[in-house]
Amino acid sequence: MIKVALIGAGRIGQVHSANIVAHPESRLVAIVDAFPEAALSLSEKTGAPVKTLEEVMADPGIDAVVIGSATDTHADFIELAARSGKAIFCEKPVDLSLARVQACLKVVEECRVPLLVGFNRRFDPNFAAVRNRYQQGQIGKAESVLIVSRDPSPPPVSYIQRSGGLFRDMTIHDFDMACYLVDEPVVAVTARGSCVVDPAIGEAGDIDTAVVTLEFASGALGTIVNTRRSGFGYDQRIELLGAEGMLKAENQLENTVLLANEQGTAVANPQYFFLERYHAAYKAEWAHFVDVALGRAQCLSGGKEGEQALRLADAAVESWTTGKTVRL
Amino acid sequence: MIKVALIGAGRIGQVHSANIVAHPESRLVAIVDAFPEAALSLSEKTGAPVKTLEEVMADPGIDAVVIGSATDTHADFIELAARSGKAIFCEKPVDLSLARVQACLKVVEECRVPLLVGFNRRFDPNFAAVRNRYQQGQIGKAESVLIVSRDPSPPPVSYIQRSGGLFRDMTIHDFDMACYLVDEPVVAVTARGSCVVDPAIGEAGDIDTAVVTLEFASGALGTIVNTRRSGFGYDQRIELLGAEGMLKAENQLENTVLLANEQGTAVANPQYFFLERYHAAYKAEWAHFVDVALGRAQCLSGGKEGEQALRLADAAVESWTTGKTVRL
Amino acid sequence: MIKVALIGAGRIGQVHSANIVAHPESRLVAIVDAFPEAALSLSEKTGAPVKTLEEVMADPGIDAVVIGSATDTHADFIELAARSGKAIFCEKPVDLSLARVQACLKVVEECRVPLLVGFNRRFDPNFAAVRNRYQQGQIGKAESVLIVSRDPSPPPVSYIQRSGGLFRDMTIHDFDMACYLVDEPVVAVTARGSCVVDPAIGEAGDIDTAVVTLEFASGALGTIVNTRRSGFGYDQRIELLGAEGMLKAENQLENTVLLANEQGTAVANPQYFFLERYHAAYKAEWAHFVDVALGRAQCLSGGKEGEQALRLADAAVESWTTGKTVRL
Amino acid sequence: MIKVALIGAGRIGQVHSANIVAHPESRLVAIVDAFPEAALSLSEKTGAPVKTLEEVMADPGIDAVVIGSATDTHADFIELAARSGKAIFCEKPVDLSLARVQACLKVVEECRVPLLVGFNRRFDPNFAAVRNRYQQGQIGKAESVLIVSRDPSPPPVSYIQRSGGLFRDMTIHDFDMACYLVDEPVVAVTARGSCVVDPAIGEAGDIDTAVVTLEFASGALGTIVNTRRSGFGYDQRIELLGAEGMLKAENQLENTVLLANEQGTAVANPQYFFLERYHAAYKAEWAHFVDVALGRAQCLSGGKEGEQALRLADAAVESWTTGKTVRL
Q: Is B136 part of the contact surface with chain A (CB cutoff 8 Å)?
């Protein structure tokens, strides 16, 4: 059994709190949020008391923290928790600056605490099955991977302004997925992007549509196709092609109902966004963290993975701005 | 908030206990089981104390009971609970004898307590969507319904011997679903059956494969296709054809992964059996019962529905044995 | 190479004429039709001359006839062609009267000419694959078969009046398919039907919606689900369930395009009717007839098959009117 | 009616000869091939006489030529036919050298003869439907297009050596499709490639796996994913995403049959290669050429389109070798 403090009571914090409560080996014992109302509201739902960050860090009865606060607080809170000897679950990214990430991970390493960086898609049952079946040799050596990753609709421009840009905010999940699936070092990154969904995104210095090509050490190629707006839901698919076949994970649809009439046949859309699509993934991710915190499993998504994905995002930014392939 | 006693701590009781615990407006306060070990084991998992049936019935602090014990105890326990003023959630069937069902429902009516009979499929989001969209007029007047309902593999013969036979044990869900979807009285039942899966089932006096044709008041026809063994999982599909189109609910698959190679393309099977397939249905069913117990909703699956489905099952038995269509 | 006369230049005759012309081993050498305009029009398209029935039968240079004229001429023309020593391809049915069919087949047998009765669906590549894979043992012994067979929209009442009724006109294809797939004698037929699509069909003494249950010698059950109006196209599917798995043939869709937007995802309907859906089947059927006429293959769909299907249709009529299972 | 000479009696020539023969307004009147045996064999099948190139060009009774001979003869034969006043259907590419293409097209223009360059995929009913529905405004303005284009297995290295390389031989179809769908000028090309399927392809100076990113004038992005070996058939899919939705064309499968058992559910693979997959496209392409030759339609796939696709292929080669985005 681990006792857990949740730092950040917003949308993603609420997802985690439900999983913490439902897991037979974790207990939610504290809620921290810069906005007292958010903390109080979640406290009422869960019965866990509101505490300050200082109280949490000082309390030796708290085994683990879940950090779901604003991105620019992640690295600081990780260091604080590491120095307090807590097991750490932190939403991605550790930080938008690679140097800051590296410094932070050094602290974690010195303190010898477990750290799970929330690349939730690694725990999606479909994507995990693709990886596992690849590792079992079902398709021979990987030769290419295609990741289609489209959000249903763009976030507010205010979010985009502090997001680190599309490559660091959105594509970072796909960089991680590509590495997770192909399981080889990336040696080159080529990225193209444009702003066609909303000019306000371009005015904020960002893009809303992008294509990234990854080259892996063996020569295998990866393709990531992104947009901030699919219009029809969260389009999340992967195709891993090997020497002896292809493993593919399709979208999860909202339901299995179809309507056929003179006009045609209508089926359900993909589940709308990440809360629905990755519901099972968040649950499995939490179960994995409990295993890690209790020393029963090696972390599948640690600081190194977070650093690696950010490094690829930085390379994509460079490639996009220079029009050149960036070798790593 | 309702306080709930669970009677029957077996497989289906455990499904309900999880839903009772997870629902914000219900609390599991007692567990009853004829087998002390089963009761204790579930008590340890949930923290709810083991009690006797008498204690539960006598305790005015207990608002509702969930009856998931052996079929031949259902009617007695319903009457006991009704006379104790509890809201009642009982697994189907109320009883295998229509006369006993009618006597039992009379008691429930006299005691004016809510009774939900567990036709879980009514709460499946896909099937419920078919019904709702039909009610909204999306396909005009219903002209026929096809229900394919195949178990993955047959139960033990010992189960079959006390099951009431395929029509009363298995098809009963499909009778209920046909009525729920078409929403008209059934005026005739024609049934054919045979034993081709396992001769031991035939020796027990039962069949393992069946086709039932229902005639509704408007002339609409219903077809139910059953087998105790699909071999590939729980095959649960419906097609409701109306004057202006068809609504169809397909199987839920185990995952969205496919493998393509020289030999062909392999996709996942339907979810294996009812615990997986109707996971969401059981959850929604419990939420509906809480609403009913708190007086916020009319019961969608009461005693009348249970009686009606059993009446159709009895007619199917008669039709199967006589080779004649049975008019109701 | 066979030289072929086409008797009947209507819609189905035109389908056959195209296949005769395209096949490298058949040549269309005569067209016969009671309506001179129909004959002339097809003659102009194909270059084959218009002839009278007598000319065709008397011409020893004509090896084979294709009979696609009105149903009530089939048996007479078959006998005429048999006595003239021609190989015969005749659209189903040989006749609506079982006695007439038997008399006609006797003539064919005496004349020792090949006769193919046009159960085109036997030659559909998908259905043929189901049969072949079953024969290869891919699913063990058949335990049940489900045939969904829905026309897109009802024919004119004038057609229905002389059609022999739904069971003899429409279901006859499904009776044949069930026998073709399960490959066992049918021992009992149970049929229910109603008129819900169009009252004018009922006034003509027919039904537009039906369910038939077949019992095979081994105990395997067959289900046929029919309607004259699906509203969304030609719904033609089969599911053959065996002891070790299920073979299923889905509909062929009009195209592979889908449109996804906020309202949902729209895909194509099944191909609209038999000319599109069974395009490949008609072609394969003709190729098979050429093989039969040239003595290179045993006929897969002869007079016996036509007689058997009609016998089942007659039994269905009896069951429907008496409300009893008919044993054969 | 047009009278047609076929130049090149190989595999693709045979596809065209069948369509020429089957079309009511075209007649095959001559076959030319450098290999007399190939010409004779096709002559026997079709009844059309073998002739020399000179005879064909000199014969004023021949209206049109179909050029399906070796790539390095295309430009010469086009010029010859143009100067002889024939309507010209030529397989892609006109030539592997852009300068040679431009010179050749100049001759065609001066001679004012129709030229159709065989980008067969433009005539695929699925892809054409995507284009037409986009043009009708079904998804708003295009923002990105994804083309997955995978051959089932690599051609012999001898073919690769004289193919012009993957971008000019294989991707050229996808460049053309991207332009056809998005219908805007391409302003930049970025390409990455590698050799992972067969080292012999690399030794021949070519790649077998590639990803190309196209930037269109409006900012819309195109992605092309290629490999010489899928292992499971001809993987040919497109996704055109617009401001208001997505149009997608999926693969055509070999059949509609599935087998479900304990091991899972097996469905058919995509049709194996271009002869099957683009069967309908070749037929529609020929019908279009007849319309063009008879002056009834504007050519949908002329010399300009051929030149444009080659220009993009050249840019892809440059981008791949320099590691830089090439602006056009």
A: no
Q: Which residue stretches of C33-143 are H helix?
A: 36-46, 53-58, 74-83, 98-111, 125-135
Rounded Cα gap, residues D307 and D101, in angstroms: 7
Q: Do C207 and C89 share a structural domain?
A: no
Digit-by-digit pLDDT tens for chain D (328 residues) are 999 999 999 999 999 999 999 898 999 999 999 999 999 999 998 889 999 999 999 999 999 999 999 999 999 999 999 999 999 999 999 999 999 999 999 999 999 999 999 999 999 999 999 999 999 999 999 999 999 999 999 999 999 999 999 999 999 999 999 999 999 999 999 999 999 999 999 999 999 999 999 999 999 999 999 999 999 999 999 999 999 999 999 999 999 999 999 999 999 999 999 999 999 999 999 999 999 999 999 999 999 999 999 999 999 999 999 999 999 9
Q: Are residues A48 and A160 in the same domain?
A: no
Is D248 an 8 Å CB contact of chain C? yes
Which of C214, C225, C267, C319 should we substitute to test contact with B (largest number of B Cβ atoms within 10 Å)? C225
**Residue C279 host element (H or E):** helix C279-293
- Would the CA dihedral through C313, C317, C319, C320 be positive or negative? positive
List the single residue in C141, C209, C323 with the smallest CB-CB distance to B221.
C209
How many domains are there within chain C?
A: 2
User: Of A91, A113, A135, which marks where a domain is finished?
Assistant: A113
Q: How far does the CA of residue B231 sit from the closest CA of chain D (Å)? A: 6
Q: Are residues B156 and B227 in the same domain?
A: yes
Query: Which two structure tokens, joined as six digits, stand for B12?
Result: 């289906």
Supply the range of the domain harboring residue C302. 122-327
User: Residues D6, D145: one domain?
Assistant: no
Complex prediction ipTM: 0.95
Contacts of A248 in chain B (CB under 8 A): 257-260
CATH of the domain at C182: 3.30.360.10
Could you read off the pLDDT of B234-286 as tens digits, one per residue?
999 999 999 999 999 999 999 999 999 999 999 999 999 999 999 999 999 99
D18 touches chain A (CB under 8 A): no
CB contact under 8 A, C129 and D257: yes
Whether chain B has a CB inside 8 Å of the CB on C207: the answer is: no
Q: Are A159 and A290 part of one and the same domain? A: yes
Q: How far is CA D129 from CA C258, D150, D299, in A?
A: 10, 21, 18
Q: Mark which of C113, C141, C176 sits at the end of a domain.
A: C113
Task: Give just the sign of the alpha carbon dihedral B225, B230, B234, B239.
Answer: negative
Specify burial of residue C327 (Cβ count, 10 A radius: 0-12, 13-18, 19+): exposed
